[in-house]
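Board notes (copied after class):
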Amino acid sequence: QVRLVESGGGLVQAGGSLRLSCAASGRTFSNYAMGWFRQAPGKEREVVVAISWSGGSTYYADSVKGRFTISRDNAKNTVYLQMNSLKPEDTAVYYCAADRRRTVVASTRAGEYDYWGQGTQVTVSS
C-alpha cells in the first residue's frame, strides 16, 4: 500500500505561482509512474501532467504546457508540480496519483492509477 499526501495548494492571484508537493510512503516510490490530476466543480477529473517511473517520459496537457513542470525526487519519495503563470481556469482540487506499472510512457488515464492522494485546493483569483 502506498499513501500519498499532497501539500502546497492555496489562493493565488492570476499570474502567480505555486508549487505542489506529493509525498509518498513506501520503499518502491521509484518504481511508480506519477501523475497530477485536477477536478474543478461540475467538471470531470482530468490529467494535468504525468511522469514515468524512470523520469524519462513526461506528459503535459495542452492547457498547461509551458506553464507547469513536473519533477520527481526519488531520494525524498516526492513528486512536485511547479505551476507558473496561473490562470483562473486552473482553479481546481489537484490530486497526485501513483501507477505501479513500469511502462515506458506515463499513463494519462485516471483508471490506470492505483493510489491517490486526498487532494489539495488551488484557487486562482482574477
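Comment from the instructor: The two ends are 40 Å apart (CA to CA). The first strand starts at residue 4 and ends at 7.
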